[in-house]
Amino acid sequence: MKTMHARANTTGAVEYFRQRLAYEATPHGLKSLLEEEPTEVVVIDVRDADSFSEGHIPGARNIPLDRLVASLSGLPRDQLIVTYAADLTCALSPRAALELAQKGFRVQNLLGGLTEWVRKGYPVEAEGMPSERSQAW
């Protein structure tokens, strides 16, 4: 009986991690994709405009979560969309990714958000200072 229960839990765990890998982007994976195939990905920062202007991933579009649905017609359906917010504890990015997935977009959520991106030492653009590394994060 224990073996059957353990096997069922293992199967569930395999499916859970398979799904996570399919729908979550790591900072390293996103950076590599942006360098190798920049036309294949659209990065969306779902934080408010003030936070975006203080620092964001180079090339990211700022579409706050509350304006996402109104912006759907301007988003490509033939590219991967990667959403991000401030950090792992912020629910904005997964909510945006869910909304996009429900509307039929190919989407991933950036693990750790901008905080993890910066922690890895990757470049950040700030208003008036392209590709600066933000020390505020």
Task: Describe the structure in your own words.
The chain has one domain (24-119): Rhodanese-like domain (Oxidized Rhodanese, domain 1), CATH 3.40.250. Helices cover 44% and strands 13% of the residues. It has helices at 2-23, 27-36, 49-54, 68-71, 92-102, 113-119, and strands at residues 24-25, 41-45, 61-62, 80-84, 107-110. Strands 1-5-4-2-3 form a five-stranded parallel beta sheet. Strand 2, helix 3 (49-54) and strand 3 (61-62) form a beta-alpha-beta unit. The protein is globular and about 50 Å long. The termini are far apart.
List its salient traits.
44% helix, 5 strands, disordered C terminus, alpha/beta, 137 residues
